[in-house]
């Protein structure tokens, strides 16, 4: 299993085994990841990800950031907190992490997930005496003693929505651990218990936007000041928007920081990013993607995917060698849109005939579970043979039950269902980019800090729909950066909301109807990612992969190979099938699919081609609790 956890081949790796527990882990190189840590009484602790600080469960000590004085490694810091507060230490941790605690004296093992479940953990119980978990879902259903099958209805969710909701997965018998939870295995009795140490509550505070923005700016500056180390070199993924720009505005000039932007050419987005970097007097690097970028990612990325999103969303990873050589930590603005914008909520639309349509800056209230399901439901891909449509599948998995139960995760109300559906747990989000960054290098996004998440849960709907706290933060921290027009809207961040709203739509109309397309190639765009729709029509990598995977599709009873070919051909002829084709390609390239369908990693492909070998993924952990015969005589 441990072999499935490595992305670059340069990771530190380790394994611990005794008569009850086996833990294997893989992590980015560096002393920060030395594992495990040990308490005075012999308890062992492993940690994957980042822990930025701690707040005492009783609140007496307030919040305290983790520093070099606290512990040399994240695992040591967590070990000291476990010594001080026992199992309740989890409630005080601030970060994006998975922590494993093996309390030898108590004969218990604990697996702790962070508040939002940003680092998913998956479990399977192959027999009554064994509990197995991994941060890599694909390593579980192919274990020799696990009898797992594909769940076609949950696969339908993945193929259509890009992710399976809640704690469900596409494999029978494999489930995700709940976010913000402590899963405890009693090594004597074999019982497994789960305790939730935190639950999100959307409780907006009725206050003026200016007051909220002041509170946000104050916390945001604190988060950056605490986290950034003057002895390290940082890289920032800089877009032409406002999320990463706010980070750049808040970083102290003395911090060694360089910026990166990836694109196929020096398009509008790249030009704005470069202008922002120069305004901040920071080094700017344009990482240029070529035409074969997606073909290469298809070979390398799916090995580590946990059925979130599509392989093409790992669009920065092939520049990983350069980034790891140049910086110690990579920073992104991921999470800002999810936590502080309106995108999760439907808005009324105004139709203007040939001029197009636009959303009004207000939220439509969702009054029932059924209404939410109807908004989410889409037709299933033609190539998937499933006895139920997506509406029926969602109706069985999102039900009113002491609130709303969404695939095993409970929310208090329909409003919270709509609010949290996209990020709690974080595996609900159909985007692989965050997970790919974690696998590529040491990565941090300040917007996932507990203190900022708490503010997101207080932001009133009217401020979400008609104001922008991230823009306001940039204006407050660096007016020069705020004056650079946003790449998407064409409007400086300093403008008032009514002005931004009107100019945004005017510029969008002008770009669509009056401005000539400047893209050098059809698959290039003015955005930071490839135009995948046109790339599929001008590059034959998908056709070759579908031909290569023909034996695999024939071995999967729920995939119609001829229908998949028709979907591809229809796309070439002008239909829009990019999403379902990229999801299918991701699925077919996953090693677990090959192993489960054909019992091999590559035998079927060798009959038709000799593709490049896959590379592995992120710094992760996996563990097994059970009898010694299970942990030592059942290698994967």
Automatic annotation (TrEMBL):
Renumbered residue ranges of the record's region Disordered: 598-636
InterPro entries: Asn_synthase, ASN_synthetase/amidase, GATase_2_dom, Ntn_hydrolases_N, Rossmann-like_a/b/a_fold
Highest taxon in the source lineage: Archaea
Domain Asparagine synthetase stretches: 218-468
Start-end of Basic and acidic residues biased regions: 626-636
Domain (Glutamine amidotransferase type-2): residue spans on this chain: 32-140
PANTHER family: ASPARAGINE SYNTHETASE, ASPARAGINE SYNTHETASE (GLUTAMINE-HYDROLYZING)
Record's protein name: Asparagine synthase-related protein
């Amino acid at each position: 299993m441990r072999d499935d956890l490595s992305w670059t081949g340069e990771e530190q790796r380790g394994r611990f085994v005794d008569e009850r527990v086996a833990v294997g882990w893989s992590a980015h190189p560096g002393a920060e990841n030395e594992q495990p840590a040990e308490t005075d009484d012999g308890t062992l602790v492993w940690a994957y990800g980042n822990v930025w600080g701690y707040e005492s469960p009783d609140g007496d000590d307030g919040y305290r950031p983790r520093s070099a004085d606290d512990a040399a490694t994240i695992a040591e810091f967590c070990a000291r907190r476990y010594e001080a507060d026992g199992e309740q230490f989890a409630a005080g941790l601030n970060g994006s992490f998975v922590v494993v605690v093996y309390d030898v004296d108590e004969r218990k093992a604990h697996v702790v997930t962070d508040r939002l479940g940003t680092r998913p953990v998956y479990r399977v119980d192959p027999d009554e005496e064994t509990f197995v978990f991994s941060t890599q879902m694909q390593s579980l259903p192919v274990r020799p003693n696990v009898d797992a099958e594909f769940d076609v209805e949950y696969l339908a969710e993945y193929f259509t929505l890009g992710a399976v909701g809640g704690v469900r997965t596409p494999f029978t018998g494999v489930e995700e651990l709940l976010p913000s939870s402590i899963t405890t295995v009693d090594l004597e009795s074999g019982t497994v218990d789960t305790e939730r140490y935190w639950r999100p509550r959307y409780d907006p505070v009725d206050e003026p936007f200016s007051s909220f923005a002041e509170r946000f700016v104050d916390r945001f500056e604190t988060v950056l000041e605490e986290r950034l180390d003057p002895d390290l070199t940082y890289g920032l993924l800089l877009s032409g928007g406002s999320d990463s720009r706010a980070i750049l505005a808040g970083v102290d000039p003395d911090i060694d920081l360089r910026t990166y932007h990836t694109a196929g050419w020096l398009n509008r987005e790249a030009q704005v990013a470069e202008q922002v970097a120069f305004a901040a007097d920071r080094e700017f690097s344009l990482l240029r993607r070529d035409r074969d970028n997606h073909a290469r990612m298809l070979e390398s990325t799916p090995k580590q995917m946990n059925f979130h999103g599509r392989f093409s969303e790992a669009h920065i990873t092939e520049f990983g060698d350069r980034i790891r050589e140049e910086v110690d930590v990579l920073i992104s603005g991921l999470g800002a849109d999810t936590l502080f914008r309106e995108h999760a909520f439907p808005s009324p639309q105004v139709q203007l005939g040939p001029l197009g349509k636009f959303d009004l800056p207000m939220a439509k209230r969702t009054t029932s579970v059924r209404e939410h399901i109807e908004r989410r439901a889409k037709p299933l891909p033609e190539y998937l043979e499933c006895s139920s449509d997506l509406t029926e599948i969602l109706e069985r998995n999102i039900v009113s039950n002491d609130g709303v139960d969404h695939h095993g995760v409970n929310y208090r109300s329909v409003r919270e269902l709509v609010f949290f559906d996209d990020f709690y747990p974080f595996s609900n989000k159909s985007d692989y980019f965050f997970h790919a960054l974690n696998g590529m290098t040491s990565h941090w996004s300040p917007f996932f800090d507990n203190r900022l998440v708490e503010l997101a849960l207080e932001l009133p709907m009217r401020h979400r729909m008609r104001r922008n706290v991230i823009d306001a933060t940039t204006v407050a921290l660096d007016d020069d950066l705020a004056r650079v027009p946003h790449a998407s809207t064409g409007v400086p961040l300093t403008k008032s909301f009514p002005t931004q709203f009107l100019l945004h739509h005017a510029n969008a109309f002008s770009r669509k109807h009056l401005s000539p397309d400047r893209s050098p190639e059809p698959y290039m765009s003015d955005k930071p990612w490839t135009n995948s729709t046109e790339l599929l029509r001008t590059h034959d990598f998908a056709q070759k992969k579908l031909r290569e995977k023909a034996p695999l599709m024939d071995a999967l009873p729920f995939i119609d190979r001829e229908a998949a070919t028709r979907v591809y051909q229809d796309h070439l002829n002008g239909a829009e099938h990019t999403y379902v084709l990229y999801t299918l390609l991701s699925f077919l390239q996953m090693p677990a699919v090959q192993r489960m369908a054909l019992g091999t990693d590559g035998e079927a492909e060798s009959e038709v081609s000799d593709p490049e070998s896959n590379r592995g993924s992120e710094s992760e952990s996996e563990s097994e609790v059970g009898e010694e015969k299970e942990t030592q005589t059942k290698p994967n």
